[in-house]
Amino acid sequence: MHELMTIMRRLRAPDGCPWDREQTHESLRPYLLEEAAEAVDAIGSGSPAELAGELGDVLLQVAFHSVIAQEAGTFTYENVEAGIVAKLVRRHPHVFGDTVVSGSDQVVSNWQAIKAAEQGGRPRRAVDRVPSALGALSREAQAQKLAGIQGDRDSLLRTLQEAPESEEGVAAVLSAVVAWARSAGVDGEVALRARTQQVLEQLPDETTHGT
């Protein structure tokens, strides 16, 4: 990581890369989302080399934001690393402490309790607990989980029959699809991404025409 940070500082230097120097936290937002999505795609590809490359691109975003923040005097990469290390130790008392757990369900329950205590016991609004930058299907799935919404094939079919041909109707059907997927133990976002990839791979290559 030290070498990557050195390169990023060089790129951001006065005599570095004009494009890199122009970037801000805000301008880099779409790249962070894109690189994370491409890493997810790489997992589906089954190629370790491809995954390693895409994770490098995600790591680049971490370095980029850290250098920008250091220049502004807000935080450093060392702060980022120290923060996540402390959080992992704090939220795994069954590994780094004396807490005993019976299984992964209790690990998750303890994680949530520790997280709430870190925030002073103040409940967060539901809208703050589901990132707005998530894909629409993933965000709907998390919202349904928080709301305790269940779904199945029958409720999906009823929604399909009753939904009007409008934006609201389409949204209702998509929500029902997500609920059905959750009941089947399927991540709708991942499933649709895989399906879209299959469709794209079956399309003919673009042809160029000379003049």
From TrEMBL:
InterPro entries in the cross-refs: MazG-like_dom, NTP-PPase_MazG-like_N, NTP_PyrPHydrolase_MazG
Alphabetized Pfam families for the sequence: MazG (PF03819)
Domain NTP pyrophosphohydrolase MazG-like: 23-96
SUPFAM superfamilies for the chain: all-alpha NTP pyrophosphatases (SSF101386)
NCBIfam families attached to this UniProt entry: mazG (TIGR00444), PRK12333.1 (NF008986)
Name of this protein: Nucleoside triphosphate pyrophosphohydrolase
UniProt organism field: Deinococcus malanensis
